[in-house]
């Protein structure tokens, strides 16, 4: 176990880490168009973002990579795989939330056509956006996949999960035990930024959120 890995399991636990990494930029991101499960590829900027982030994440010496099978996530994962020699495992359970008729609409179009639904979702109410999935249903499919692969890690090991903003947020909420009504309070992830979960004696803990640099050990987090 590396010294860095040891800092992520204070007080017990196996000291494992899960890095939840959002894919790079797409044209629909730029247009503020809701992607959901639509298979949109990376822009040139998105590929450059993935390459830069991969160089940083490779420094964490991950033990395994899993990824959504949508192209924007799979191509982001491929950049880290090229540096580490690891073979990503792709799983459709890590896809972004299916959002029905919202998919393909811009943020403004959604508010104009489905304003009440949008407002209820932002209040933390369970909403099938566009007739699609509930956030809890996304967590139901994604979180077990993350846990299954995390369980395969050696003590002090690191798993990189390449997925999507909404799926990452709901997965974090589920793994750290937040009430679903408060998942939205976690905030969004910038393209190709990541969040870090560390394992301690009481389970998973959020250590970094929307990070774009290597995680640093937390010193004196109670003062």
UniProtKB/TrEMBL annotation:
UniProt-annotated catalytic positions: 23, 96
Binding site for substrate: 22-29, 72
Pfam families xref list: His_Phos_1
GO cellular component, one term: cytoplasm
Domain of life: Bacteria
InterPro entries tied to this protein: His_Pase_superF_clade-1, His_PPase_superfam, PG/BPGM_mutase_AS, PGM_Phosphatase
Molecular function per GO: phosphatase activity
PANTHER family (alphabetical): BROAD-SPECIFICITY PHOSPHATASE YOR283W-RELATED, GLUCOSYL-3-PHOSPHOGLYCERATE PHOSPHATASE
Protein name per Swiss-Prot or TrEMBL: Probable phosphoglycerate mutase
Protein species of origin: Streptomyces prasinopilosus
